[in-house]
């Protein structure tokens, strides 16, 4: 199967637009990456992870989000594929470069974007048990941990979510998108004398308490259906009600390589 058969529409944004505009575009289209252009020419890509890194950096600690631009956070390391590229090759590129979306070009023109979810949807009938491909090592935080700590864990471990656990029980999940929204909203309404308070923002204040889990004996196909229906990228895996792992789009992509 070719990339052109599964790709979606590429949403673009000019590099000189505000970072707040990028976030609004992502929210509006329920996506986690935008193709960045400069005078109509593709020049990079910006993702939730790029924004979370920029908003939380000490370099811009006292700047309002409205003063930051896409060019300050975007990644200029541009990886593209042609629309006739095999999806297995695209999956390998994502895994090798630790990315979850790749712009698709045809004769140098942007014609779409292929995301991990587009590729793994082709495995929706897979009967492979979740426990065979899930990650057993799960990074967790407590509700009382600070959001900046959770953000650092995500960046250092190149992950998009942490599971919130209290007394051995799953009580929430915190994603990159949750952190971006929280930092953005807080900075938007704080003045420059209040930025130090960001460091005291707690996980329990911004985490999602409605956690969708999956049993370790469920199939990969079932996991994909849950991810697709709920617009999520990862699922905590449980056995007898206890957290035993996590399955993400990245784990499922590995079935292709």
What does this structure look like?
- The structure is a single chain.
- The protein is of the alpha/beta class.
- The chain folds into two domains: 3-123, CBS-domain, CATH 3.10.580; 130-256, CBS-domain.
- 36% of the residues lie in helices and 24% in strands.
- The protein has twelve helices and twelve strands.
- The protein has helices spanning 3-6, 19-29, 48-55, 70-73, 87-97, 116-120, 130-133, 147-157, 176-189, 203-206, 220-230, 249-253; strands at 12-14, 33-38, 41-47, 81-82, 101-106, 109-115, 140-141, 161-166, 169-175, 214-215, 234-239, 242-248.
- The protein has a three-stranded mixed beta sheet.
- α5 links the parallel β4 (81-82) and β5.
- It is flat.
- The mean pLDDT is 89.
* Derived structural class: alpha/beta
Overall pLDDT score: 89
The rough form would be described as: flat
Number of strand segments: 12
Concise summary:
This protein is of the alpha/beta class. The protein is built from 12 helices and 12 strands. A hairpin with a 2-residue loop joins strand 2 (33-38) and strand 3.
Q: What tags apply to this protein structure?
A:
alpha/beta; 12 strands; 2 domains; three-stranded mixed beta sheet; CBS-domain; 257 residues
Write the layout of secondary structure elements.
Elements: H1 3-6, E1 12-14, H2 19-29, E2 33-38, E3 41-47, H3 48-55, H4 70-73, E4 81-82, H5 87-97, E5 101-106, E6 109-115, H6 116-120, H7 130-133, E7 140-141, H8 147-157, E8 161-166, E9 169-175, H9 176-189, H10 203-206, E10 214-215, H11 220-230, E11 234-239, E12 242-248, H12 249-253
Parallel strand pairs: 1-2, 4-5, 7-8, 10-11
Antiparallel strand pairs: 2-3, 5-6, 8-9, 11-12
């Amino acid at each position: 199967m070719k990339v052109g058969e599964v790709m979606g529409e590429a949403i673009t944004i000019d590099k000189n637009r505000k970072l707040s505009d990028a976030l609004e575009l992502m929210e509006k289209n329920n996506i986690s990456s935008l193709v960045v252009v400069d005078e109509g020419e593709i020049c990079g890509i910006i993702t939730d992870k790029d924004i979370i890194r920029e908003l939380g950096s000490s370099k811009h600690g006292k700047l309002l989000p409205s003063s930051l631009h896409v060019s300050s956070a975007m990644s200029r390391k541009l990886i593209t594929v042609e629309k006739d590229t095999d999806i297995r090759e695209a999956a390998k590129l994502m895994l090798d470069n630790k990315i979850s979306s790749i712009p698709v070009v045809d004769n140098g023109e942007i014609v779409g974007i292929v995301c991990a979810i587009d590729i793994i949807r082709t495995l929706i009938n897979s009967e492979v048990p979740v426990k065979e491909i899930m990650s057993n090592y799960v990074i967790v935080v407590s509700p009382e941990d600070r959001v900046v700590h959770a953000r650092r864990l995500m960046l250092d471990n190149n992950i998009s979510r942490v599971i919130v656990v209290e007394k051995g029980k799953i009580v929430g999940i915190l994603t990159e998108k949750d952190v971006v929204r929280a930092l953005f909203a807080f900075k938007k309404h704080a003045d420059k004398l209040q930025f130090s308070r960001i460091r005291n923002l707690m996980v329990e204040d911004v985490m999602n308490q409605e956690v969708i889990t999956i049993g370790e004996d469920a199939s990969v196909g079932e996991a994909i259906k849950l991810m697709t229906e709920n617009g999520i990228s990862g699922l905590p895996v449980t056995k007898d009600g206890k957290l035993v792992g996590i399955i993400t789009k990245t784990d499922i992509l590995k079935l292709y390589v």
